Amino acid sequence: MTQPGEDADNRCSGRDGNSGHSGGGAARRTVLGAATVGVAALGLPSAAAMPSATAGPAPSGPTRHRPTGQPPSPELRALLREIDPRRIEATVRKLVSFGTRHTLSSQDDPVRGVGAARDWLLAELGRCARASGGRMIVELQSYVQQPAPRVPVATRITNVVATLRGSVTPDRIYVVSGHYDSRNSDPMNATGDAPGADDDASGVAVALELARVFAARRPAATVVFAAVAGEEQGLYGAGHMARTYGSQRADVQAMFTNDIVGSPTAEDGSRDPYTIRLFAEGVPTSETPEQAEVRRSVGGENDSPSRQLARFVRDTAENDATGMRVRVVYRRDRYLRSGDHIPFLQQAYPAARFTEPAENYAHQHQDVRVVDGKQYGDLPEFCDFGFIARVARVNAAALWSLAQAPGTPRGAKIRTTALGNSTELTWERGPEPDLAGYEVVWRETTEPEWTHVIPAGNATRHTVGLSKDNVFFGIRALNRSGLRSPVAFPAPQP
To answer: Could you report the per-residue pLDDT of 297-332, keeping only the tens digit for each?
Structure first.
């Protein structure tokens, strides 16, 4: 084990890690009686036959069978086993050792302040990159933030970004981040101690550990591991990163921020060590008036890209390999709070936030002090490193599954040219060379999760013997390994 506070040369070491249907745009039809059939016709594992995902040893109460669930492959299980709580602890303690990481703190002191933390993160991610054979590039992404709320003078804000280029469809991008800046009780106090162990050294430790275990592997799509700055002053670092992707028209298909993921213990001492919250918005932040009119007409408030992403996380990361239950919260974020996923939502990218199940506010945004025998401050002794490791496994399971599966289908449409009691769906063919076909999913309008799966073959249209007026439909792609994409919610096509 690397001792906390040491530079670890080996911290980032890791190991190197057929359709029976015709192609083209041929239409297919499924009658109501076949609505719950699996995908045997594709020669692939049946999603409907997959075991219900479990939430690990702690959650209680009934679990619901999810026909869209995807159990972890042996490859994914091996990856998850490499996630090490000792390395996560070492990262958290090292970041705390810089005293403060406030955005306005020193940028050139070698041992204290945000600049020292930045330089250490750059070196650590550089060590991770050595295992990638040149496929992971690490860079400092900087800009000067002009005076603004909580930024009294022009200030350089720097993200530390490691990009692991995909081996098959590198233009498709998935991002995971934590913010490495910190604060104490006064958001403008740039000199006092602000250890920031939970908020948010814990999230940075997740991103750094995933960079380590992913580096020697070859994901099909590109995965980006980021430690961003300026979050406590106004989401500035993530805002710059999201705008940069937006200006490049980058195909960011998912973004996760891990912010306050360090402890399962609430203020009253109760613990929920096998649950992580995932905040996912309904009505898109970036929605235009025209898109709002369509949403109102079809009732798509619960079918934003971020909600589909959250369903995918539960499908792929709520199982015995992670030992966790993912509690999806149908909100963009908590009351009076915000996170680094929001700038990505503003750029119309699917994004969501991981946060511990019940926060202890004595241990975040607090000066380090003891009052009436009670310890305040965001100190590492209040973190649970085994819990952070399980959160990292949830992130890893979702990210690896996203990167190895086909991308979310584009151009999904539901034909509305005529009245009728059947439904025709169309979509665009994806670029993946191992694409095996597509599935239609559907659910009652009152159901939160997809409940039925229909094989649609290797085609770009499918007709279902169900009225589009009565249920919600979605489209997802699958490859020859049986991995499924997130669901695309179809827009009406006159």
So the answer is: 999 999 999 999 999 999 999 999 999 999 999 999
Dihedrals φ, ψ of 215, to 5°? -55, -40
- Report the distance separating Cα 464 and Cα 40, nearest Å: 18
What is the spatial distance between Cα 316 and Cα 28, in angstroms, rounded to a whole number? 28
Following CA atoms 344, 349, 355, 358 in sequence, which dihedral angle do they give, to the nearest 10 degrees? 100
Other Cβ atoms within 10 Å of 265 Cβ, number: 21
Cα-based distances in Å from 128 to 49, 160, 202, 419:
38, 13, 18, 57
What stretches of 201-329 adopt beta strand conformation (E)? 221-228, 251-258, 275-279, 325-329
Q: If we measure between CA atoms, which residue out of 238, 137, 252, 205 comes closest to residue 395?
A: 205
Nearest-CA neighbor of 155 among 221, 195, 102, 193? Answer: 102
For residue range 69-102, list pLDDT tens digits in order. 999 999 999 999 999 999 999 999 999 999 999 9
* Phi and psi angles of residue 268, each rounded to the nearest 5 degrees, phi first: -85, 5
* Cβ(478)–Cβ(406) below 8 Å: yes
Phi, psi at 54, each rounded to 5°: -105, 165
Tell me the pTM. Answer: 0.89
